[in-house]
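Note to self: keep these together.
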Amino acid sequence: MPLSVLIEAVLFYKASPQKKSVLQKLFMADDVVWHEAITELKSRLESGATRLVETDTELLLATAPELSELIDSLRKEELKGDIGKAGAETLAIVLYKEPVSRAEIDRIRGVNSAFILRNLMVKGLIKREAVGNSFQFHITPELLQHLGITNKINLPQYSEFMTALETFNQTPV
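Structure:
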């Protein structure tokens, strides 16, 4: 498999900026091979829906700028829609366990939560904060306002749920 495809796969899976140095080390690519792969990836993506965004230190896959009107209209539709069962489940995890990483959310749910987390962020119900090389998810004041509470400790059965969550976390996998 070409290095450019492997880089694209990791960027797609991570769905967030990734350190070039970490990726280059992951694939054990020397500078020449690395730069050729990045050039190839950029070139291949030029005619598609995604682009490779590159800073001095990071890489990210992003939607092509010429699709911004389409994406904006989709985003507005998403804001109107229901969050669904998976969204409610993910939101509950963030609400009760914040700050929480995507890896921890995925572990609790047993599935990849990247898409659901993005939808909840688009709706303004959660936010993410960079912590080292990863992100931590937090609730927003808008979520509390929407729930009609001023603090998450006012949630129904908050202490009981936290005790059950602690028991779950101590259970060996």
